[in-house]
Amino acid sequence: MKFKNNVLDKLTQIEAIANRIQFQVNRGMDQEQTLESIENLKEHIEKTREIISLEQDDFAQQFAQ
Fold first, then answer.
1. Is the dihedral of CA 46, 20, 27, 35 positive or negative?
2. Phi, psi for 28 (deg, rounded to 5)
3. Nearest one of 21, 65, 62 to 41, comparing CA atoms
4. Is 40 exposed, middle or buried, given 0-12, 13-18 or 19+ CB atoms closer than 10 A?
5. Interhelix angle for 31-64 vs 2-26, to 10°?
6. What is the 3-class SS of the chain, one letter each residue?
7. The pTM is what?
8. How many CA atoms lie within 13 A of 23 on its CB side?
9. What is the sign, positive or negative, of the torsion defined by CA atoms of 49, 51, 57, 62?
């Protein structure tokens, strides 16, 4: 259950960043701020991937023993 909550929390953060990017684009805000938000989004996606890959490894180890 902890894994599921962690992933859902990360997805909520990713969604918030995506919404911020959409707002920045729609308002024609500074390109540098938008690019910074995109980099932030990429970092959060990578962190989520790490969580998922670690969980899969733990799951596989349970059944390998």
1. negative
2. 65, 35
3. 21
4. middle
5. 160
6. CHHHHHHHHHHHHHHHHHHHHHHHHHCCCCHHHHHHHHHHHHHHHHHHHHHHHHHHHHHHHHHHC
7. 0.78
8. 8
9. negative
The predicted-structure confidence for 50-63, as pLDDT tens digits, reads as follows 988 887 666 566 66
Q: Say which residue the tokens 């599921």 belong to.
A: 4
The per-residue pLDDT for range 5-53, each reduced to its tens digit, is 999 999 999 999 999 999 999 999 999 999 999 999 999 999 999 988 8
Q: List the structure tokens of 63.
A: 């059944």
- CB proximity list for 12: less than 8 A, separation 6 or greater: none
**Scanning the structure block, which residue is given the tokens 């500074």?**
30
